[in-house]
Amino acid sequence: MQALVMLLATGATYYLGLLAAAAAAINPGRPNTPGSLPAHRRQKRDWIWNQMHIDEERNDSLPHYVGKIKSSVDPKKTEYQLRGESAGKVFRVDKNTGDVYALERLDREKISEYHLTALVVDKDSKKNLESPSSFTIKVHDVNDNWPVFTHRVFNASVPEMSGIGTSVIQVTAVDADDPTVADHASVVYQLTKGKENFDIRGSGLIVTMNKHLDRETQDKYEVVVEAKDAQGRRGESGTATVFITLRDVNDNFPIFTQNRYTFSVPEDIRVGSPLGSLFVEDPDEPQNRKTKYSFVQGEYRDTFTIDTDPSHNEGIIKPIKPLDYERIRQYSFTIEATDPTIDLRYLGSTSPKNIARVIINVTDVDEPPIFQQPFYHFQLQENQKKPLIGSVLAKDPDAAQRDIRYSIRRTSDKGQFFGITKKGGIYNDKELDREVYPWYNLTVEAKEVDLSGTPTGKESIVQVHIEVMDENDNAPEFAKPYEPKVCENAPQGKLVVQISATDKDITPRDVKFKFSLSTEDSNFTLIDNHDNTANIIVKYGYFDRERAKVHHLPVLISDNGRPSLTGTSTLHVTVCKCNEHGEFTLCEEAAAQVGISIQALVAIFLCILTFTVITLLIILRRRLRKQARAHGKSVPEIHEQLVTYDEEGGGEMDTTSYDVSVLNSARHGGAKPPRPALDARPSLYAQVQKPPRQAPGAHAPGEMAAMIGVKKDEADHDGGGPPYDTLHIYGYEGAESIAESLSSLGTDSSDSDIDYDFLNDWGPRFKMLAELYGSDPQEELVY
């Protein structure tokens, strides 16, 4: 059984005891007989609590009594123990009596209840006499906490000029006490600062109390909120600060920064260019500045316009048509600045300072001449020369009224067909052909000149369009090239081809072309269809290809112009062999019968002429080169010359590209080879020769100085040398070095300790090296 009996078991035992006591009272002293209610012999157990309570923050001395656990087992043999996380730390039990004590003051806001386990064990063996029983110790709340706000600082905003009662922000304070206990966690709010403009309601909602909150006057407010416990101790409360910002609304008119604006602009200012700016002051924020500028009573509305710059809220004045100093020198008008998006509910009165006066002074500039027309259009009959086609006129708009001179830009009249007089009269120097150019577009320049005719001012241009009028100066001709063919056995009346005509002149709608053959003695006849076409048909029939394979028919074509013109066009009709179905089987081209065309002859002639000119130029160039060479040999040209050698040689077997005797002569001390002529190419290797050795003990300059002196004397006494600077290459390093000369070219084989005669045994590929470094047999015989 459990040491701590549950409530149900305890109640049952209790009632059985009552029944037994009642029976004993009815029959006192009566023994228990069979059939009577037997006395309950079970040992009575005490009421065992499974829940205990203790108040938090008790002020009396520790430890604090909490409650008691008890078992019906003989107390002399029992011992009480506690198990749990807080056992021994926060709570302890008297092992003999079962009294439970709290070892420290408890705080319900930290831990509201503790769970423990009670044990009843034997004092000696420490074995459990009852099963472990769990129980709970609950901490009773006392009102010992005041409300605390969720934030120390709150930020809120509300539109300016808001009505009374407009919500601003909801603030919240929390009381850590038990909310299930009446009024322990109730919070009461009140404002300690800012109550003249704001108020707070019971739930912590801050609202406006002043409908005239103007952001332009004050844009930020500080409100202090206090939160108290409804039954808390006096002076114990929480506070928070609320910063309220007023949001801007469009409630202010723009006001001009000055009552009068004056600008000076040149008269040649470009249309649409800004000439000045108007500035206003609007205390609203930029997003609520929507200033609109307008003219009062429509003054000069057709001359200027005012645009609003959205980034700076300024008005920009621009001319919408050209200004003229000579016509109007000053403009004066009144402008107004308004804001159409303003909320009129917030306005107390309209500001009278939104009107300003603008004065624009136009300054004079030297303007170019102005033509009376934007362009000119003249007509001229073709094939005529006219002393006056038309006139252009330009004037000086300035007060000086200078004279104007005219000219035609040659880029617009490359053929130089036209001219212009000083007064602007245009004429043509050459006859014009409408069929070549029907229109001429000229650019005429006008320049201001002084009394002497010198240009002094600016210039201007105008376009002159000259239309060349047509006249009937071109005879009709075939509308297209024809290549008619006819069978040699064609019957009489067979249609050969239908022809039509065209005219290079402007063809009127009622044009009529007449067709006829210049001769009627052929086997063809022409029938005019009177619709500007004609048919060529076979007159007699049967053609003899042996006599003529191509027939040439001159056709006369006349127009109905004034005067009427007649042209002749020739048809080349080819006679072909045909099969029984009338299909052509064998035809000679008309062009082959006619012969080579003029264009082909011209092309052949040009080719021959080009070839002849090229041949003559080549012969002439060779003759000039020979003369130059002959002249160069007689009189040497005196100049500095840089000779570049870029040959690398062909190896040991190459004995043709280089003169090996130069090396051998240098090696054996032979005479220096002759200097090459001016036109000859210099040898690849320069002569290498040691200077004469000085006698021992003689006082002489160094070997290098002696060698340079020798070379200088050779160059001075060389009569065949050129009279200009040359480049001498020396392969001698001098004898002052311990290693002496490192050049193989300057090394004499007789002075070397190495015998290079073995190179003769290495074959023909080393023949060159053997000749350079091997010993000379004649030299050996001498010694």
Characterise the protein shown here.
Its main location: other. It is a single-pass type I membrane protein. Cadherins are calcium-dependent cell adhesion proteins. It comes from Bos indicus (Zebu). The chain has 783 residues and is mostly beta strands. It is 12% helix and 31% strand. The protein is built from seven helices and 43 strands. The strands form 13 sheets. Strands 36, 38, 41, 42 and 43 form a five-stranded mixed sheet that branches. Strands 1-7-6-3 form a four-stranded mixed sheet, with no helix packed on it. The chain has a four-stranded mixed sheet with strand order 9-16-15-12, with no helix packed on it. The longest helix has 37 residues, at 598-634. The protein is elongated. The chain starts with 6 loop residues before the first helix and ends with a helix.
- Overall shape: elongated
Roughly what fraction of the amino acids lie in strands? 25-35%
The end-to-end span amounts to: 146 Å
Rg over CA atoms: 66 Å
- Binned, the helix content reads 10-25%
Structural class category: mainly beta
Return the average pLDDT rounded to an integer. Answer: 77
* Poorly predicted segments: 1-47, 591-595, 634-641, 665-700, 746-750
Tell how many strands the DSSP assignment holds.
43
What is the count of DSSP helices, taking H or I runs of 4+ residues?
Answer: 7
